[in-house]
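Run log // design_07
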């Protein structure tokens, strides 16, 4: 599984989307072929066909370990070479549940990260001089 995770992590975001599409396609070849065409880049479907061999292996790995474990390992591997801030933004935009997004974010960055504008608002305190008003 470690070799598979390293290879998918090397693909970056397309690799993550490939894992998610494979897991959610339910065996639908059309969804995978469409994704392969887009992953093939300038080579189109022919370039994407090079990844077709991974479909079976990825499917078996996801079935054996679960998508959460696979995604955590992929993001752990990617965090060695990429900015954690970039990966957190990428996770925010993934087509997965909010619960899984939170788990992935906490996995690669256990420190609580808040977006600008979030958090408590500052309190306004009024100081009154009682001696001057008497």
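design_07 sequence
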């Amino acid at each position: 599984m470690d070799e598979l995770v390293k290879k998918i992590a090397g693909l970056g975001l397309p690799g993550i989307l490939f894992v998610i599409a494979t897991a959610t396609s339910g065996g639908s070849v059309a969804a995978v072929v469409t994704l392969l065409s887009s992953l093939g880049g300038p080579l189109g479907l022919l370039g994407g066909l090079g990844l077709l061999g991974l479909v079976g292996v990825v499917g078996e790995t996801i079935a054996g370990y679960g998508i959460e474990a696979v995604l955590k390992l992929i993001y752990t591997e990617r965090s060695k070479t990429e900015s954690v801030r970039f990966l957190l933004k990428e996770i925010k935009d993934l087509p997965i549940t909010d619960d899984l997004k939170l788990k992935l974010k906490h996995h690669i960055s256990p420190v609580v990260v808040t977006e600008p504008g979030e958090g408590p608002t500052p309190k306004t305190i009024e100081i009154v001089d009682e001696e001057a008003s008497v």
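The mean pLDDT is 76.
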